[in-house]
Amino acid sequence: MRLATWNVNSVRARVDRIVGFAVREHVDVLAMQEIKCKVEQFPFAAFEDAGFHVEAHGFSQWNGVAIASRTPLTDVQTAFPCMPGFAKGHEGPGAPQEARAIGATVDGVRVWSLYVPNGRALGDPHYSYKLDWLAALEAHVRESLTADPDLALALVGDFNVAPTDADNGDPSIVPGFATHVSPPEREAFAALEAAGVMDVVRPLVPTGYTYWDYKQLRFPRNEGMRIDFILGSPAFADAVAGAAIHRNERKGEAPSDHVPVVVDLDLAGPDDDDTPMIFG
């Protein structure tokens, strides 16, 4: 299985590019974030014509997540347990949930496409929401793997956290003054890993960014951030046979500000020699 995650920054604006990438790179499962549309507005036909089944979750022109798969998706969920919500002027429990998570099982792998809240600014209510959201996700991971230690679980998407200083090359993102790099956010990311998942891409691709702001020539200057991840349980991590960050997808006409992150999985076991090589 070739699994990819991509914050596409509007699926309708880039549908040809997204489908073209999935077909060209022989992607079997594509998790998308920031689809920026309602479910009824999603361009299902373009994906279906290319041989994909799609499950999408979106309420408006903001946020939104989806999963496209060559094989049918089962056990689809559009929120994990206790996932908090957010609305301007509505603090505390009971706020409406946003379209930031969709989970499905495909070929025995439980995949969650996740768009973690941005946080906006230190001290902003959205920052507290972000930390609460990550804490709820951590609890779900811990409970899921306690119930089934052999579960092949993948958390993929835009986490809006740069876990280490090496993951931040944007000079406008200054520790102590900005989100994405604050100690509480990094601690929340570390707690998620401690719950039983690991970054399965970094051991194979130790350096490289996944996001570059459109402003200030960030991409030509390579002033990016590594904030898009594929985190896997031990059963998932053991199946990883290759990984790549597709930096070139940030080039060309009207690109997303994020690029795809891809892993190859050898789900048939170590004696299967048919897993394709992966190219970045």
Q: What this model shows, in words?
A:
By secondary structure, the chain is an alpha+beta fold. The chain has one domain (2-265): Deoxyribonuclease I, Chain A (4-Layer Sandwich). The protein has helices at 15-24, 44-49, 125-147, 183-194, 234-237, and strands spanning 2-7, 29-33, 53-57, 65-69, 74-77, 101-106, 109-115, 153-158, 198-199, 228-232, 240-245, 261-265. Strands 3-4-2-1-12-11 form a 6-stranded mixed beta sheet. The longest helix has 23 residues, at 125-147.
Notable features of this structure?
280 residues; alpha+beta; Deoxyribonuclease I, Chain A; globular
What is the number of E strands? 12
- The CATH architecture term is 4-Layer Sandwich
* Proportion in β-strands: 15-25%
- CATH class categorisation: Alpha Beta
Mean pLDDT: 95
By secondary-structure content and strand pairing, the structural class works out as: alpha+beta
Distance between the termini: 16 Å
Overall tally of domains: 1
Please tell me how large the radius of gyration is: 18 Å
Instruction: Quickly count the helices.
Output: 5
Largest sheet: 6 strands, mixed
Give helix % range.
10-25%
How do the helices and strands follow one another from N- to C-terminus?
EHEHEEEEEHEHEEHEE
The CATH superfamily is known as Endonuclease/exonuclease/phosphatase
CATH fold-type name:
Deoxyribonuclease I, Chain A
Strand arrangement within the widest β-sheet reads: 3-4-2-1-12-11
Contiguous low-pLDDT stretches (5 residues minimum) are 270-280
Shape: globular
